[in-house]
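Predict the 3D structure for this chain.
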Amino acid sequence: MTLRVAGLVAVLWPALGAAEEAPAAEHAADPAPAASTESAGAHEEAAGGDHAEGAHHGPHAHHVALFAGATRTEHETAPSVGADYLFYLPVLDRRIGVGPLVDATFGEHLELVAGVAVAARAPIGLQLALGPIAVFVAGEHEFGGRLNLSFAFHLGEMFSVGPSVSADFLPHAMAYVFGVNGGIGF
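Done. Predicted structure below.
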């Protein structure tokens, strides 16, 4: 399954990136007013020379999200809540992010998950994240990994909401986490 997802992302990623670049190419064909190109600095030229008009300058560097959903294990399905923070690195148009995540599952025993995610997001809102996790249940702990696929519907400049599905790979079990993320970018 992991190889299928990775293969699908590898095939679709260039096409998804081309969808965002097409409007930029059209905008570049429009002549800019002479005054805006003469007085524009390097940052303003990179943003299309529209800095004074409040143009969007690309993806936000920081994103904080809350999660509500459920976690399915071999034995039960239980409600889950969580949070994550991602800092998108200033490379590749801020498409690569890294940050902490925490989850709590309220089943037979309280289960806490803490980890670090490395995420790659496509221009259309699709994001693939993975990273190591530590799971704490009833005084015991174990280490594993999480693979997450999510989609963000943007509501204005800062807010997003969308579905999220994760698979937690642990030494003696697997868990599936599914639900809705709501976040804010800044």
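Residues 2-29 form the longest helix (28 residues).
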